[in-house]
Amino acid sequence: MTKYIALTSIQPPTGAVRKFAALKDFRLIVSGDRKTPATWKCGNAVFLSIADQAKLGYRLTKSLPYDHYCRKMTAYIYAAKNGADMIVDTDDDNIPLSGWTFPEFNGRFQATQDDLGFINIYRSFTKQNIWPRGLPLKLVAAKQPPLKTSRLPVRIGVWQGLADEDPDVDAIYRLTINKPCYFSRRAPVVLGKGTVSPFNSQNTMFRKELFPLMYLPAHVTFRFTDILRGLIAQPIMWAAGYRLGFTGATVIQKRNPHDYMKDFESEIPCYLKCEKVVNIATEAVKKARPVADNLYSVYSSLTKNGIVEGRELRLLELWLKDIA
To answer: Does residue 19 sit in helix, strand or coil?
Structure first.
């Protein structure tokens, strides 16, 4: 199995990047941007400068905005075209812990009940008052009974590993509680069909059949892009017979500096639109359609409903041609 790790960075190689590069079973691809140092170099990593990206001839890369997180998609395409069977999506501030890995995609795992709607998955891994970015705000203080799970044979489409110390939370959490969190070590939890949790792009593994779902929308806010991707992906995975799974923390996040108020502003679509996105996506998905066709159908519906702009569809078309 050919395994790739993909990320983008505007910094010199960080400690996290060097640790990922040292993993023998994975190939690291780093997509640069205009602010990335021209001298960027890290052993065992393939670095794609802006000039390198242009030479690759990918349709999407020519149209992606600069100084933008979505340039990460060039690394995804590079990995896919070079034989990736799975791609791990991460960032340069997530340091892999000793033994960093993911479970197999196919196996018997503890799975929740179907049709629970949105849940706070962090409550399965800690008693601390904490919630993931993208959880509808009305559920932050809501009582959630312990999840009942059964050990079942399932096909995982995406594994989301959690992050210790400074996990993925929203700006409201950071502006109010802002406590570090270290999750308990426990067996993975797989979400049943119709049970939803936000997932991000920080410690996340996709199987080959679902590479089209890695598309990061380029014309939404930075703090919404990977959350929107994950919410769109879940109804499409259900239709294709795949599930979303969560593991305990396998990285420590030493978060790059952020302005929490700017994060808050960027997250407003997360606070207001996440439930609507899932409803629209669920309605747009058809079981008989291929994954890529369902993805395009969902974005078409989101465009009609004013969630994304029409120019997102044009980028998506280029992405689907490149990733095919």
So the answer is: helix
